[in-house]
TrEMBL record, chain A:
It comes from Haloactinopolyspora alba. Residues 96-174, 273-346, 373-447 form the YdbS-like PH domain. Keywords: Membrane, Transmembrane, Transmembrane helix. InterPro entries: UCP026631 (IPR014529), YdbS-like_PH (IPR005182). This is Putative membrane protein. Residues 1-18 have a biased composition (Low complexity).
UniProtKB/TrEMBL annotation, chain B:
Pfam families: bPH_2 (PF03703). Residues 94-172 form the YdbS-like PH domain. InterPro entries: YdbS-like_PH. Keywords: Membrane, Transmembrane, Transmembrane helix. This is YdbS-like PH domain-containing protein. The chain crosses the membrane at residues 46-66, 72-90.
Length: 499, 183
């Protein structure tokens, strides 16, 4: 068929080790029987089976316990739990024993499975991001999870669950160094904090979100109803029925507050880094040239404070559920416009999206978008295409030409009557989409043609996948990415060499 | 396959103003446009006839049991309307399909009500799919689809003769490899 540069070459897939288990893994000193796995490959943290299995065991106890309480057979229940625990312990240990990882050429290889051996190779030149996540239980036990995104086929690639804290950091440094195309022993690059979100602002941004206001309205409504309506039972019924909604609202608020607690964005030669989280902490590293698009957004109530949020498209991040995508795609949860602008300039190195002159949508667009048509606008310079839209929820999107996957024009029947068409600049899946709505047909034609041309030129000048390699083997050609980018990278590589 | 520019008289649209503009937008006249096989019309007619016949039979029986003869008449009437509309639409839809291989990208255009033009740079291609169902095979047709890292990319070309599909597949993958860019 064709090239499939999506990264992992997977052998026929097997059931992932659904280890259900409990036990402290102490039995670790036996010779490795695993055939084909090189000797220097390492195992995951010995507490892995315990951490992976505890949730399963808890569920078994909860369900079985209910059952046992109802029937009164506590003895049998206890036996079952012990049996499950022993079984889970054995399978967990076995799966842990047979899972090993290590570097194999220019890829990270992870061998796992007992009956069906599975060997995955994660191509490092396709590395899009490296995350170190520490769930609450992991923090208590001193382990963390390392997650690599290689933009392959939707699901996240190869989370290494679990590694010791030091091991994870060392492995990340080695992954990034190899992916950057420099010596694997290079220690982790230094980072410089760019932006920290103050707790007070985070709390206020949560309180000013539409979800919170909505929840407040519901609560007040219930309180008023209690005071006014005499039939308490009916109100209680209504209250119960909206309980799921209330829980959903709570979860949404937690998303903004708990997940983004202690948010620090820093820059390093290995790209931008994000550290955040109250209970579960997350530490993301996205190398240079991996940002596929950025959106600056402003909910209605934030306008009063002049705050915005930044969302980012990174290939592989949006592969899973929307929840995961929301968690990983936040570049800044809340910031002032100036701060956001600085960050925007930094992640889209060499361009200034907010300085791009905008062309508003033509007048006929008012028939299709009576309220927001005046805010519809797009613009493009040599590096990015930007789109502005939204009246209540303001939205400003920037997509680098070098990351354009394809360009489309679509024209519906109504648009045809008005002589309009919509141009879409397709990017990898994620929260950022550049849609240039409602332009005159002749204009749309020019946009498509120039956009395709700009994308072609930008692709040639883009940051190479091995973002350090260009500096090591200078090709002689001028740096087409503009000064800011070039200088940044130059110093970056020197810093690393000195380390 | 005969290379035929798609901006002939038959292509012109029933829109009073800006018809030229419209064509130029979705099928830039200076490209070497290829049409898909005419057999696609036969294939789609067959699918239409069979599905309409089956659908009408079910609805007619249902309505007939409910309302008696008038119900059957209504069902048959709807069937005739659907048939005429479909038979009118299918050739137009076929004519709207087109693709052009440029130096750096592939253009695909289709759609009658919603007209679309997709520009896919070869370097952005992740893989090419060639599919041919049992019906398509009977007509010697195949569908070629380009995939990029964006699921929104809408680059599917149905109704290609098998040989052309194979040629296109090979050419696309060769070009994709030659111009491959990272994400």
């Amino acid at each position: 068929m064709s090239t499939e540069p999506t990264g992992d070459g997977e052998t026929p897939d097997t059931t992932p080790d659904t280890a259900s288990d409990t036990v402290s893994g102490t039995a670790a000193e036996r010779p490795a029987p695993a055939s084909g796995t090189p000797e220097h490959f390492r195992r995951l943290h010995p507490l892995t089976p315990l951490l992976r299995g505890w949730a399963f065991l808890a569920a078994a106890i909860a369900f079985g316990g209910q059952d046992a309480l109802r029937s009164g057979e506590m003895g049998r229940f206890g036996l079952t739990v012990v049996a499950i625990a022993v079984l889970g312990m054995i399978t967990g240990l076995v799966s842990w024993w047979f899972t090993r990882y290590g570097f194999d050429g220019d890829a990270l290889r992870i061998d796992s499975g007992v009956l069906n051996r599975r060997s995955r190779r994660v191509r490092l030149d396709r590395l899009q991001a490296v995350d170190i996540n520490r769930p609450l239980a992991g923090r208590l036990l001193g382990v963390s999870e390392l997650r690599m995104e290689v933009a392959g086929g939707g699901k996240s690639e190869a989370p290494l669950q679990y590694l010791g804290v030091e091991d994870a950091i060392r492995l990340r440094a080695e992954l990034l160094a190899r992916a950057a195309g420099i010596d694997a022993d290079t220690p982790e690059a230094p980072e410089r904090s760019v932006h920290e979100v103050p707790l007070e602002r985070l709390v206020w941004s949560t309180l000013l979100s539409g979800v919170f206001v909505f929840g407040l309205v519901i609560l007040v409504g219930i309180a008023v109803a209690f005071a006014v309506v005499p039939d308490r039972r009916a109100i209680l019924g209504v209250g119960w029925s909206i309980l799921p909604a209330v829980i959903a609202i709570g979860a949404a608020l937690w998303n903004q507050l708990g997940r983004n607690f202690g948010f620090v964005l820093s820059e390093s030669p290995d790209g931008y880094r994000i550290r955040k989280g109250l209970l579960d902490t997350q530490h993301q590293t996205v190398p240079p040239g991996r940002v596929q698009g950025v959106a600056m957004r402003q909910p209605l109530l934030w306008r009063w404070k002049g705050w915005v949020r930044l969302d980012v498209d990174v290939a592989g991040y949006a592969g899973e559920s929307t929840d995961d995508s929301q968690r990983t795609s936040t570049l800044l949860p809340v910031a002032t416009v100036e701060e956001a602008t600085t960050v925007l300039r930094y992640v889209l190195a060499g361009s200034d999206p907010l300085a791009v002159p905008l062309h508003p949508a033509p007048r006929p667009a008012r028939w299709l978008r009576p309220i927001g048509w005046r805010r519809l606008a797009y613009g493009a310079d040599d590096h990015v295409v930007v789109v502005r839209e939204g009246v209540l929820y303001r939205n400003f999107t920037a997509v680098p030409h070098a990351k354009t996957q394809s360009v489309r024009v679509v024209e519906g029947p109504l648009q045809r009557r008005l002589g309009l068409a919509t141009v879409r600049v397709d990017t990898t899946p994620g929260p950022v989409d550049a849609v240039i709505r409602h332009r005159y047909a002749h204009e749309a034609r020019v946009i498509v043609r120039t956009q395709a041309e700009r994308a072609r030129l930008a692709r040639k000048a883009d940051v190479p996948e091995q973002w350090m390699s260009r500096r090591q083997a200078p090709a002689g050609g001028g740096d087409p990415d503009g000064d800011a980018d070039g200088d940044g990278q130059q110093t970056a590589s020197i810093e690393r060499d000195q380390e | 396959m005969a290379a035929s520019p798609r901006c002939g008289a038959g292509w012109a649209y029933g829109v009073a103003s800006g018809a030229v503009d419209q064509d130029a937008l979705f099928a830039p006249p200076d490209e070497d446009w290829q049409q898909v096989s005419r057999k696609l019309v036969h294939l789609r007619r067959l699918v239409l006839l069979v599905s309409l016949a089956l659908g009408t039979a079910v609805v007619a029986v249902g309505l007939g049991l409910l309302w008696g003869t008038p119900g059957v008449v209504v069902a048959l009437g709807a069937c005739v309307v659907g048939l005429i509309w479909g038979l009118w639409l299918i050739p137009r839809n076929w004519r709207a399909w087109g693709y052009a291989e440029r130096v750096d990208d592939l253009l695909v255009t289709h759609g009658v009500m919603y007209r679309k033009l997709t520009v896919v740079p070869y370097g952005r291609m992740q893989f090419v799919d060639v599919a041919s169902g049992p019906l398509e095979r009977r007509y010697g047709l195949a569908t070629v689809q380009l995939h990029t890292a964006s699921p929104a990319t809408d680059a599917k070309i149905p109704g290609l003769p098998a040989a052309e599909a194979a040629r296109l597949r090979d050419r696309l993958s060769a070009l994709g490899e030659a111009q491959a860019a990272g994400l």
